[in-house]
Amino acid sequence: GKTAKIARKTLEKRQKQAKSPWKNGKNRPKSLGKTAKTNYFCKKQIQHGTIPTPKQLFKRFLCIAKDCIATHRSQTDRKNICNPSVRQAVRVFCRDKGETLIFFDEVQCCENIVTAIKFLVDEGSYRYALSGSLLGVELSEIRSVPVGYLSIKETYPLDFEEFILNLGVAQCIIDSVRECWTDCRPVDPVIHEKLLELYRLYTIIGGMPAAVEQYVTTNNLNIVSRTQSDIVALYRKDISQYAEKDKLKIKEIFDLIPSELDAKNKRFIFKRLNEHAKFDRFQNDFLWLKNAGVAIPVYNVEEPKMPLKLAATRNLFKLFSNDVGLLTAQYADGIQAKILSGDLTINFGAIYENVVAQELLSHDYQPYYYNNKRMGELDFVISDLNGVVPIEVKSGKDYERHNALSNVLACKDYDIEKAYVLCNGNIRRSGRVIYAPVYMTMFIRRQTDCGGVFQVDLSGLV
Fold it and tell me: What are the tens digits of pLDDT across the range 237-247?
């Protein structure tokens, strides 16, 4: 179906960018198309068969699983492996040579599978893929994590590049725009304006596969909005189902995200929850939303210096939605048409910043922000191989005015080599500042280098 096709295109693109294909998957919130993606991955890995194997093969797997668990785990675990819910969530892929891959879906319903995977892998008969929803929450208290046996990959909403690929934009167009980003030369004006229009559309549709599917199929924003409302309702239901404590407080925080981002400084104000609210009382509730993948906290740093994590202030943060389409859907009716028309009464700053936050996170960055009474506020601060990189997001025409960024760049203590201003203008460079169209956030990707191969010199020691 369409959802499977969207998942396939997205996974193909992400696998091309990955250094190695993933083997065991973990996803966070629901409705991200993780089952379709994992199904496609399994089919691609085991190329000669997608039909479930006969009952004999599945029975053999159950016997192996029970034997493995019987050796290492409790009677309860042995029963759970044969639980009907586990049987329904297992798909088996095989090919002629006898190699078999077993895919466990919805593993949050039977967390013992995650512990058992160590013994199943050691047994060696099959390969395994695992997938589930809200695993950051549901598996947080797992008794034994199989370190060294599980490669974990997060699943995020489609980013802008994946979105326009699924809409039908040619790969060669994206590649040509990527070259403009690399060479810092202007994009063709016609393509530039079209991509800005698609970017505004992305702020409405977002990256949830179900919402993208509805748009690709119908081009009807009303149907898309109803789909997004259903997903938001599902998130609220998940809070009731999976949050063991403080369900009402978590729901209240979740419901406040749109209005908090629409405020002037976008920082989450605790007093809007309760006049006497303090961070210590609500810390676990914010962590629940983060671990569930429903919200993205962006913490303030005391100074834009490496390493940023050590400078983070845990009680000062902005709280973004995990998907900009869901955020937009929670605003007033009719906002979609205003966004498409470029209505200046819309607070595009909050919407654009939400897109940037979710894209940076999906590109393996941990975004922060910086706020200082003397220097001013930077929308985002990230770190890469060359050090700290400030990012300002400007939705208006006066994007060359950025006092806080200028102050930080002028400070010799920070020694910042480059900064980005994401705006509606075409790409150009002025000194250390790169002015880039906001859609080019899709090209800001984290690169890691641990030094490659290093062989220690043991001369005189052996």
Answer: 888 776 767 78
CA 196/CA 399 separation, integer angstroms = 15
- Per-position b or e across 226-260, b if 16+ CB within 10 A of its CB: ebbeebbeebbebbeebbeebbebbbebbeebbeb
What residues contact 180, with CB distance under 8 A and at least 6 apart?
186, 187, 427
Per-residue pLDDT, 53: 39
CA distances from residue 248 to 65, 145, 251 in whole angstroms, order as listed = 40, 30, 5
Phi, psi of 142 (to 5 degrees): -60, 140
Give the integer Cα–Cα distance in Å for 416 and 187: 26
Beta-carbon contacts of residue 411 (< 8 Å; ≥ 6 apart): 375
pLDDT tens digits along 8-37: 556 566 555 554 433 444 445 556 666 666
Euclidean distance between CA atoms 75 and 91, whole angstroms: 24
CA distances from 131 to 3, 103, 342, 451 (A): 17, 8, 40, 32
- Torsion over CA: 41, 45, 46, 48 (sign): positive
The secondary structure of 135-195, three-state, reads HHHHCCCCCCCCCCCCCCCCCCCCCHHHHHHHHCCCHHHHHHHHHHHHHCCCCCHHHHHHH
Q: Is the backbone of residue 239 left (phi > 0), alpha (psi -120 to 50) or beta?
A: alpha
For 288, half-sphere exposure in the C-beta direction (CA atoms, 13 angstrom radius) is: 24
Query: Peptide bond preceding 307: is omega within 30 degrees of 0, i.e. cis?
Result: yes
Query: What SS3 state is found at 118?
Result: helix
Do 42 and 91 meet the contact criterion of CB atoms below 8 Å apart? yes
pLDDT in tens, 109-156: 666 677 777 777 777 777 788 877 766 655 655 656 677 777 778 889
Determine the pLDDT at residue 19: 43
Rounded to whole angstroms, how far apart are CA atoms 95 and 83? 27
As a whole number of angstroms, the longest Cα–Cα distance in the chain is: 76
Nearest-angstrom CA–CA distance, 377 and 392: 9
Distance linking the first and last C-alpha atoms of the chain: 62
Are the C-beta atoms of residues 328 and 350 closer than 8 Å to each other?
Answer: no
